[in-house]
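Hello Y.,

Per our agreement to keep a running log of every chain we model this quarter, I'm adding this entry. I've kept the format consistent with earlier entries: sequence first, then predicted structure.
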Amino acid sequence: MTFVPPESPSRLFALAAEDRTLRSTRRSLRIFSLLLSGVLLLAVLMVLVIAQRQNHDATAHDRQRLHQAWEARQEMMLTDVRDYAFWGEAWHNLHATINKRWAWDEENLGPDLYNEYHYEGVFVVDSAGRTRYALINGKLTDLPLEAWLGAQSASLLRDARRLDNAALARNAVIEQQPAIIVAAPITMGKATKLSGQAEAPSIMIFVNLFTPAKLESLGKMLDVWAPRGTANNSDERLPSMTLEAMDGQAVVL
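Predicted structure for the entry above:
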């Protein structure tokens, strides 16, 4: 039989101390790991909060710039339609009679409105609601206004006929695209010697469609990423700008 001497007390004490030190070290490491994980989690949360705030601020800024650009375009269109509608020659050739030679051949209300001003639609509607002169994409057409606007055309013409030497602007959705429409009664302007008529005035209408190409160009000019139009805001997570349109509709960018 082999004799195994018992562990000395000092040896047992050393082992116990080593064990306590090991447990203490492991506990400290776990606490340190938990603290480090908490700090990292807090840092990630702070980054996310800051990023969300920056995104929110950037979206609000983009929305403001788009809204300002939209209003500026409306004002420009109102100026254009007033210049053409409040003109004695226009009253004589587009209200008292329809003179396509004057309007189209002599280019007083011709393709330049599309080529230079980028108006996809130009219409003259008489006092009886009939479209007497129309251009679509710079070309003469027999398409009536209601073919584009549908039921919206009635309220547009009604409101425009109530104006006195003024013009109106309306937002619309045409062919699933955002649009601005301006309208004004055709008047004699300063040509007071022209004889007036008792019936309701004819109405001149300009239509600006915000096609994908136009919206892309607008986005580049404003430094707004990929603006586009939609019939409705089906995904509320996407940043958007909603504008009131005719007959309870909405224009969504």
